[in-house]
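Researcher: Re-running this chain for the archive, since the previous output was lost when a drive failed. Same request as before.
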Amino acid sequence: MISRWATLPAILASLLGCASTREVEPSGPIARFGSTPAIDGVFENGEWDDAQIVQVGEDEEFRIKHDGANLYLAFTQDGGNLYFSKDEGVHILHASAQLGSAEYTKSGDLSQTLANPFEWQLFGLQDEAIADIRTITAGYLAENGWVGSIGPLGNMAQAEWAVSFDWLGITDISKRFVETPKLYIFLARMRLSPEETEALMALPPEERSQRYPPLYWPAPPIPHDSLNTGRCPEVVTIDTAGWGTIWIDLEPRSASKPATRSSS
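Model: Regenerated structure tokens:
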């Protein structure tokens, strides 16, 4: 019979070999494993404490995490667009008073041709019962691969999004770190009290943007003004070279780093 101690050097050599080939952590925002948030526009106590904080400039930030099936994002804004650049073209996910997505296909070096315009859904969702809201948003996510909290839903300046791994094209789980398609984020305050609205409209335009600054990530300007207001020109020119990437850390939270702050 072979002594169990005789196999110990082989086990240690195997473990050391695994450690030596451990993947190097990439630079940039990393979404790590965390709890599953409700996409209802309400930051419940502790709901986003296990998320990574992405610092944007000096004053803005957003949070990211995943639960093994979906990437989750939280913003202190009300609505806007997530732009993703896939192999076939640009996809725009829009949340304001309702949800909708549009798709473009590449037709030149920078030009994109409209393939599918926005199809709006979930208008008035905020008037439904809480249990129904969660059922409806879960159904939208399952059908479309993404969902966001519409502007009038939940608390002011609290926006939550989910984008499924399948929609993002994340299928290879053999690596620890995988990345999303190139991404651009633009979100802004769309929901103000009557008093805030009156005070805001009395200000010059440049002061308005300073009072409630939008979130641009990685940096301004936004890809296309019309797309951000829900309109779809037949042809747009979009340069995705400077867009960002979010990395997904597939290692369980117990084995990976705790939530931290990163700058973009």
